[in-house]
């Protein structure tokens, strides 16, 4: 966590208390369990936080349940080390300046219920997120993600949005639970709930029989 530095003036920096000589449970935005120095939440949204994100530092908090860095000016990639935050249930990384591909290790966060990565510059294909059986909210709009949309169990979702990306192919069956707004802005997508029908599969070409002349 010391690899992230709060922005703003020097006085505000001092008030944050983010330094290795002080009790981390007294750091701004950090919550510990009562009578314990075990961190369960890091919540620092809209706080002019700047710098490079190091998942390896954050995931040293082994009991971390909630991580929110929304609407700051952090940059870089998430990194495979994110998979070490095994207890995470809520991950809020929207409105930052992340880029690159999402790490495959995100699919190993088996306790995750909410994942927000919207309004970034993420690219590449989604990892195997459907393996997270308890995922209830996935917001990934306004990125540069591509490939097909995985076959999630949409009946489990309360919120789902992948609009304004570069996804392509047929939309999985959402069981009427989500409208076109969740998928708009992906020119390559087709099928319900969008009005763009998927092209019919072309029949195999007919093989013409040659006449055999004796």
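Q: What amino acid sequence fits the structure above?
A:
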């Amino acid at each position: 966590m010391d690899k992230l530095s709060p922005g703003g003036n020097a006085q505000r920096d001092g008030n944050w208390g983010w330094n290795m000589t002080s009790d981390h449970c007294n750091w701004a935005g950090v919550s510990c369990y009562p009578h314990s120095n075990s961190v369960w939440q890091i919540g620092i949204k809209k706080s002019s936080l700047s710098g490079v994100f190091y998942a390896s530092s954050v995931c040293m908090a082994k009991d971390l349940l909630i991580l929110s860095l929304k609407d700051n000016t952090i940059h870089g990639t998430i990194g495979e080390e994110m998979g070490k935050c095994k207890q995470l249930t809520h991950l809020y990384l929207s409105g930052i300046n992340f880029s690159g591909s999402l790490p495959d290790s995100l699919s190993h966060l088996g306790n995750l219920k909410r994942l927000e990565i919207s309004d970034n510059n993420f690219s590449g294909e989604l990892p195997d997120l459907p393996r997270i059986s308890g995922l209830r909210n996935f917001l990934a709009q306004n990125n540069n993600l591509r490939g097909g949309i995985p076959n999630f169990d949409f009946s489990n979702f309360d919120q789902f949005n992948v609009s304004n990306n570069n996804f392509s192919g047929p939309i999985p069956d959402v069981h009427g639970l989500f409208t076109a707004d969740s998928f708009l802005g992906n020119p390559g997508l087709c099928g319900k709930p969008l009005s763009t029908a998927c092209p019919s599969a072309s029949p195999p070409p007919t093989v013409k029989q040659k006449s055999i002349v004796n």
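Q: And what stands out in the fold?
A: Residues 4-190 form a domain with the Leucine-rich repeat, LRR (right-handed beta-alpha superhelix) fold (CATH 3.80.10.10).
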